[in-house]
Amino acid sequence: MKYLKSLALAAGFIAFGAIAAQAEGVDEINPEVAKRLYNPEMLDPSQPVEASPLRDFKAKNPPPWKIGYASSYAGNTWRANAMDPLQNEIIPKWKELGLIDEVIVTQSNLNDSTQIQQMRQLIDQGVDAIFVCCSNPTALNQTVQYAYDQGVPVFSFTGYLTAPTAVNSSVNYQVAGFEIGKRMAEELGGEGNVLVVEGIPGTSGSDSQDRGVKAGLSTAPGINIVGSIAGMWTDQVAQGEVQKWLATHPGKLDGIVVQSAAEMGVLRALKQSGREGVKVAVGGELGALCTWRKNPDLISAAVQTWPPADDINLIWRIMMRTLQGQGPKIQSVLVDPVVITYEDLKDIVPEDCDENAQNWYNVGQDKWGSTEYLDQFFVNPADPTKYKP
After folding, report:
1. DSSP secondary structure letter of residue 373
2. How far apart are the C-alpha atoms of 289 and 83, rounded to whole Å?
3. Which secondary structure element, helix H or strand E, spans residue 157, and what is its range?
4. Prior bond of 62 cis (ω within 30°)
5. Are 127 and 67 in contact (CB under 8 A)?
6. Is the link from the previous residue into 261 a cis peptide, with omega within 30 of 0?
C-alpha cells in the first residue's frame, strides 16, 4: 500500500512545474504537498483554496462545545460507516476530554431546503460549530455566511462548500479520479469500452472525481466511454441502473469505473447479467474487496478515496483545532488517495471473507491526515486532544 506521492500522471499530459500564482495560504504549506495536491492542473476549478477567513477565529464559548452535524443523507453503507465511529468513538472520546457537551444530528435526505432549515435550527439551538457531508457546493452558502455571522463556523467533509468562510476536507478527488481512470486504461491495454458510474451528480466530491476519471481514461485514445450513469453512491441504486444499462447495451463492455459506495451493486449487476471478463474499479467497500480477493483478475489495484471513519475523524480534528483558535490557513485541507495492491489485500480481508459485508476498509489516521500532516495547515498548530482552555 502506498500514498500517491508521485503520480506519474501520463507523461506529456501534465507537467508538474512551478505552481503559478498560488493563493495566499497555499504557499505556507509543504511545497511538495502544494505541488502534489494544489496544482491548478489537477485541482477541481471550483475547489476553494484561498486563505481562510477563520485564520483569526476564536470560539464564542469555552468548551465543552455543542456541535451540530447536518447530514444530507443516510441511505448507504458509507454514511452508516461514518456515523458509527462518530457515535461510538469520537463523541465518547471528546466528551471524556471535556471538550464537547453533545452532538446534535439531523438528516435532510438530499433536500437542500431541508438541510438549510435544519442548519438554521442548529444555530438557534446554540451550537458552537456545524459540520456537513457531501452536500451541494453552493446551495448552503447563504446559510454558511449566516452561521459565520453568528459565530458558528461550518465545516464540510468528503466534498467542499464554496462559501468563503467554510472549511473543507477531503482527498483531492480529481487526482484520485485521474489515478483510477488512468489505471483502468492501462488495465485494458489502452483500448476498450468503459462504462462510468458516477456518485451523486451535483455534489462536489462526485463531480470532481468524475472529471478526474474521464481525464484519466482519455490518456489512452483507444478507450471509448460508452456510457455515464449515476449510481448515487448506493449499491441498490447502482445495481438497478447498471442492470438497465446492460440490458439496453448488448455490445462489448471491457471495464466499469464506479465511485464508492456502489461497487457491490455493479458487481451484482454484472453477475446477474451473465457478463464475464469485465474489469471493475474497486474502492473501499469490504464486500467488493472480498470479491476481488476471490477473483484476482478483477483489477490490479484499488484506490481508496473516501474511508468513512478516517474522513469523519479528519474533519472532526480540523473542527476542534479551529474552535481552539489554531487558525486554518486554507479553505480546503486535502489529502492523498491510497493505493491498495492485491498483496496488500491479503492483509485486509481473509480468504474466507464475506462478499456481502457492509463494512468499509479504513486506512488509519497516519495515512489520512496525521497530526504532523495537519500541523502545516494551521497558524498555531497543536495536538487538539491536549487543549486546555
Report:
1. H
2. 21
3. strand 154-157
4. no
5. yes
6. yes
Which helix (H) or strand (E) segment holds residue 301: the answer is strand 301-304
Q: Are 130 and 119 in contact (CB under 8 A)?
A: yes
How much is the pLDDT for 7? 43
Distance CA 286, CA 84 (A): 16
Q: Which top CATH class is 53-170+307-336+368-380?
A: alpha beta
Find the distance separating the first CA and the last CA of the chain, reported in whole Å.
39
Instruction: Output the pLDDT for position 189.
Output: 97
Which stretches in the chain have pLDDT values below 70?
A: 1-23
| d(C-alpha 88, C-alpha 218), whole Å | 43
Q: How is residue 42 annotated by DSSP?
A: G
Q: Thinking of the domain 173-304, which architecture would CATH place it in?
A: 3-Layer(aba) Sandwich (3.40)
Residue with grid cell 467488493, as numbered in its chain: 288
Question: In sequence order, which residues have a C-beta less than 8 Å from that of residue 122 and are 6 or more positions away?
Answer: 68, 70, 104, 106, 130
Spatial CA neighbour of 169 closest among 18, 378, 9? 378
Amino acid identity, position 383: D
